[in-house]
Amino acid sequence: MIQIAILGFGTVGTGVAKVVAENARQIERKLGEPLQVKAILVRSFKDSPFRQLMTDDFQRIEEDGAIRVVVEAIGGVEAAYDYTKRALSAGKHVVTANKQLVAERGWELLALARRKNVNYLFEASVGGGIPILHPLTQCMAANRIDEVYGILNGTTNYILTRMVRTGAFFSDALREAQAKGYAEADPTADVEGLDAGRKICILADLAFGHQVDPDGVPIEGISRISLRDVKVAQRAGYRVKLLGRAVRMPGGGRTAYVAPHLIPEDNPLAGVEDVFNAVVLRGNATGEVMFYGRGAGELPTASACVADVMEALQASPRREEIGWSPDSAGFEDPLDLQTRYYFRIEGSLADAAMAFGQVEVLSEDGETAFLTDPITGRDAQRQSRSLNVLSCMRVLA
Ligand code: HSE
């Protein structure tokens, strides 16, 4: 019998307990022994079929030598960081979906895990149930990864989809995403792009081998997107999606950002709807490889966590390829990247042409919506200074 503990009993923690119980036979067959949740750390005791496993005493878990893996499902940094360090120091593997902790302190916790000869695994921190970190670090290991981009937040993708499909109001769509267990405890983290920012940092850390500090990554969420932009884009054959993107720069530097983009409707990312996420990896040998699936929600996220629990127990002795240097030097401004830009301005086509030269007009009805030729973000800012800009987004080539 292999025993584990779960820290926190929100969406992810509950999902882990359910998957371990419901898929007990499959898990036992693969591990060769039954897997059992021995303890669940909670702040306050709740009514639940798992009530008898609940404790509010972390020390009991820390000192219990029979508990070999701890699933940290608390979220945030403070308590989660402290408990993760203590669990690793006690020689237990730790598995998590906590993207904030991994993005901010992952390299340090991985170093501690290495010293203790245990695993710190976090497949569920990016893309929910989609296998992405393992393919990136294992299946694509023979590549130099030049770019990673995708739809990394289920809540915002759900909101955008509802706005397009049913004309739902932003606030109603957000409430639905919260009710379905997709949103963060503070949904501003989803809506303002913070959550996607943490995920693109983790992908960039693993893809490029250097720490990308979440604080240094420019992020823009979806709160400034209007239904008008969504409709203009749609009529012109584009969908609006929030993308995280990390790119290896020609001089060897790295950049990353999160921002809404116009995606041409024949691009597979344009068809990624609701809570689904999709991540594209561009390797120098493989070209582009895309991963698609449910990016949030109780069971998909728990699926990735429990698979990591199983892997932590089976990896012998540890997953060596997961890690990156704490050195964050070499991060460059994404404004140096070139792309086409979408603008909606209060003004005429003549105003647009004065600022940008030749443009592709998408709509003209008092306001003008248009696409520029490929330019850097810096030029987009400089050249639009004379215009009354209502909205501006990058276009995915
Ligand atoms: N709030 C996150 C999302 C949960 O909506 O994608 C999964 O990381």
Could you characterize what this model shows?
The protein is α/β, with parallel strands linked by helices and 397 residues long. The chain folds into 3 domains: 2-129 and 299-314, Rossmann fold; 142-294, Dihydrodipicolinate Reductase, domain 2 (2-Layer Sandwich); 337-395, Alpha-Beta Plaits. 37% of the residues lie in helices and 25% in strands. Strands 7, 8, 9, 10, 11, 12, 13, 14, 15 and 16 form a 10-stranded mixed β-sheet that branches. Helix 5 (99-116) links the parallel strand 5 (93-96) and strand 6 (120-121). The longest helix is centred in the first third of the chain and has 18 residues, at 99-116. It starts with a strand and ends with a strand. The chain binds L-homoserine. L-homoserine binds at residues 128, 153-155, 182-184, 190, 195, 295-296. The site of L-homoserine has 11 residues, from helix 7.
Share of residues in strands: 25-35%
What is the C-alpha radius of gyration, as a whole number of Å?
A: 22 Å
Please tell me the CATH architecture of the largest domain by its name.
2-Layer Sandwich
Q: Count of helical segments? A: 14
pLDDT average, as an integer?
96
Alpha carbon gap, first and last residue: 52 Å
CATH class of the largest domain: Alpha Beta
Segments where pLDDT lies below 50 for 5+ residues? Answer: none
> How are helices and strands ordered from N to C?
EHHEEHEHEHEHEHHHHHEEEEHEHEEEHE
Percent helix, as a range, is 25-40%
Q: Assign the CATH superfamily of the largest domain.
A: Dihydrodipicolinate Reductase, domain 2
Helix and strand composition category: alpha/beta
| Heteromolecules bound | L-homoserine
CATH topology of the largest domain: Dihydrodipicolinate Reductase, domain 2
Compute the number of strand runs: 16
Shape: elongated
